[in-house]
Amino acid sequence: MENIKVRANPNSMRIEGKDQRTMRHFNPYPKHGLLFSVFFAFMIFYGADAYDPLDPTGNITIKWDVVSWTPDGYVAVVTMNNFQMYRHIMSPGWTLGWNWPKKEVIWSMVGAQTTEQGDCSKFKANIPHCCKKNPIVVDMLPGVPYNQQIANCCKGGVVASWGQDPAGAVSSFQVSVGVAGTSNKTVKLPRNFTLLGPGPGYTCGPANVVPSTTFLSPDRRRKTQALMTWNVTCTYSQFLARKNPSCCVSFSSFYNETITPCPNCACGCPNKRNCIKSDSKLLSRVGVNTPRKDNAPLLQCTRHMCPIRVHWHVKLNYKDYWRAKVAITNFNYRLNYTQWTLVVQHPNLNNVTQVFSFDYKPLVPYQSINDTGMFHGMKFYNDLLMEAGPTGNVQSEVLLQKDINTFTLKQGWAFPRKVYFNGDECMLPPPDSYPFLPNSGYMDSLRFTVLATLVLSVLMVIL
Ligand SMILES: *[C@@H]1O[C@H](CO)[C@@H](O)[C@H](O)[C@H]1NC(C)=O
Ligand SMILES: *[C@@H]1O[C@H](CO)[C@@H](O)[C@H](O)[C@H]1NC(C)=O
Ligand SMILES: *[C@@H]1O[C@H](CO)[C@@H](O)[C@H](O)[C@H]1NC(C)=O
Ligand SMILES: *[C@@H]1O[C@H](CO)[C@@H](O)[C@H](O)[C@H]1NC(C)=O
Ligand SMILES: *[C@@H]1O[C@H](CO)[C@@H](O)[C@H](O)[C@H]1NC(C)=O
Ligand SMILES: *[C@@H]1O[C@H](CO)[C@@H](O)[C@H](O)[C@H]1NC(C)=O
Ligand SMILES: *[C@@H]1O[C@H](CO)[C@@H](O)[C@H](O)[C@H]1NC(C)=O
Ligand SMILES: CC(=O)N[C@H]1CO[C@H](CO)[C@@H](O)[C@@H]1O
């Protein structure tokens, strides 16, 4: 799969020079040019800030609902809502930490636990669940006894993305806090929230008291209200999560034999030290696929050294439609991607007619621009992207209706502007390396289409 041959064509040098120029002037957003320039300026100044242009309001909100006051504190239900459209928290799940402002302790928890108890030597009879000033909480694994569960708990910290599965985009636990305030006047909010999910990347704001949540009884006939509610909002920044991208994109087309590979070292070449060749004998060893505690990957050696490659192939050009093929390949021998998502930005996604073998959902982050969509696997069919190897890929085709005014095969128009895998932006090849239409572009592609159609009809007659 990985050994993509790029045909070197010395005759194309002159043409390439010319096209590079046009490519630089090619603006995929003619109408929104200013908007995007302002936006890029913003990105340069606030590069480290957690702002995702394709999901501008994406966040994880952690809500504490005090459901009862106790003699020395309170019981709260903590609910984590993942409002990010396409960034889920995959196994091994979230880790949530905070600091107690005073001498609070956790008497007990339901549906989650702290990783350490800390020093509870001050307590004689009842021993708290956790006495640390900075408790670190993790979800329980599925299958804990029923009396240790609450709704939306015990999923091993796995939380779906809002765009893929709103019902699964929530995780909850209950905490009983002692040596704390016992009324809405005396309670002190926990501080300095940290969220790992499962790696770094999230930054949490301060807790803020918000209007109390109202709950509807299961029969929906009675409303109850939390005694007090506070919210914490956490946002993700890929920049904080990792130095290098974690995926890259390659391109090909029916109108040019060139395959534009992922950029070299797209995901950082220091990885190369520990990579493993796809024909290595080590691969037949038992345990080579076993995930590590620290999630360290075992990558197949490639020129890009990315765990994920997304390939976009412009496959066919019909009269009113065109068709692209999308393939995602996993190069990590130690990771199965569950509930993976692929986000693509392309101006023609406003006219997606059919998506084969993936689910598709348009994302409309700005009311006026419908150019972004999310692909994800079909449940029980290809929502699991298997570890590197012969089964480590998923693929689909997309049929798009042409808008005659904008459709073109020139200047790389048919390739995506942005690609995200699991919420992280993938590195695209440099624009001047895109497969481009031979000079007599339109006629050639027409001839090719006619030829291809002819061959296809002949084949169909024969078969
Ligand atoms: C968090 O996301 C929700 C849902 O998109 C949005 O309504 C809310 O304003 C966001 N909060 C912040 C602080 O961005
Ligand atoms: C607090 O978080 C909940 C989701 O957990 C959200 O529905 C609510 O709008 C938030 N409140 C405020 C004021 O942000
Ligand atoms: C929270 O973090 C800030 C600095 O990051 C620190 O000054 C402050 O003491 C911390 N608060 C608590 C309660 O630990
Ligand atoms: C605190 O609770 C009392 C009733 O127990 C209520 O009247 C008051 O508005 C609450 N204050 C806040 C800040 O929620
Ligand atoms: C991936 O999933 C398959 C099937 O569920 C399993 O056999 C394999 O061990 C998993 N691989 C990893 C790396 O977890
Ligand atoms: C966006 O485009 C999709 C087709 O990809 C269409 O189904 C959807 O209705 C469009 N949404 C808006 C708000 O234009
Ligand atoms: C195919 O595209 C490449 C650029 O990636 C270009 O160098 C080459 O000349 C193109 N081939 C033809 C036949 O035009
Ligand atoms: C050819 C075609 O269907 N064009 C439509 C593409 O989508 C835009 C907006 O979503 C419509 O206005 C076009 O008619």
Automatic annotation (TrEMBL):
Looking at the UniProt record for this protein, which Gene Ontology cellular component terms does it annotate, in alphabetical order? plasma membrane
The COBRA C-terminal domain, residue ranges: 246-435
Q: Does the record's keyword annotation contain Signal?
A: yes
Per UniProt, the keywords (alphabetical) are: Glycoprotein, Signal
> What are the BP-aspect GO terms?
cellulose microfibril organization; plant-type cell wall cellulose biosynthetic process
Keyword hit for Signal? yes
- Pfam families in alphabetical order: COB_C (PF25079), COBRA (PF04833)
Please indicate which superkingdom the organism of origin belongs to.
Eukaryota
InterPro entries, per this entry?
COB_C (IPR056900), COBRA_pln (IPR006918)
Protein family = Belongs to the COBRA family.
Q: Which PANTHER family match?
A: COBRA-LIKE PROTEIN 4, PROTEIN COBRA
Q: What is this protein called?
A: COBRA-like protein
Its taxonomic path starts at: Eukaryota, Viridiplantae, Streptophyta, Embryophyta, Tracheophyta
